Amino acid sequence: MAENINRVTITGNLTADPELRHTPSGTAVCSLRVAVNGRRKDQSGQWVDKPNYFNIVVWGAQGENCSNYLSKGRPVAIDGRLEWREWEAKDGSGKRQAVEIVADTVQFLGSRDGSASGGQGGEGGGFQPAADVPADTGDFAPSGGGGGADDDIPF
Asked: Between these two residues, 92 and 10, which has the higher pLDDT value?
């Protein structure tokens, strides 16, 4: 008998700022909403984007980090599992259901300032190359340019 597999991996953009709350015991729970675009052809044969929206739940310290460092529009990669839940509506109108992704890992993509560099944007973050410092070329001998024995490649 085969084992059941429940794995989800998505990459998309946040549609709203994260919402952080805490359980009565103090555990952090962060809610994210992620849009993932797919492409398909419409009836006229033109490619169109079709967005899909997913609700994500992130628990504990990782949820607190999401709340602190993510914002609407930021690209993220989520790896987790699908979870179905059911509850009674507050207004007494019946039961409600939802399927959401419970994140095991959330990777922050892009940068905090919105650029696609992937580094740590903002103050004090990331490597900043110094363009005015020349590269060390001491390991390279100057090219003679002629047709000597060095031009004979053994393969």
From this structure: 10
Q: Give the residues across from 141 on adjacent strands.
A: none
Q: Is 60 helix (H, G, I), strand (E, B) or coil?
A: helix
What would the two tokens of residue 70 be? Answer: 């993510």
Q: Is-above-0.85 flag for pTM?
A: no
| Contact predicate 72/16, CB 8 Å | yes
On the 0-12 / 13-18 / 19+ scale of CB atoms within 10 A, 104 is middle
Pairing of strands 95-108, 47-59: parallel
Give the model confidence (pLDDT) of 12-42 as tens digits. 999 999 999 999 999 999 999 999 999 999 9
Give the separation between CA 77 and CA 14, rounded to whole angstroms.
10
pLDDT at position 111: 74
Name the nearest CA neighbour of 71 among 42, 33, 38, 105: 33
Domains identified in the chain and CATH numbers: 8-115 (2.40.50.140)
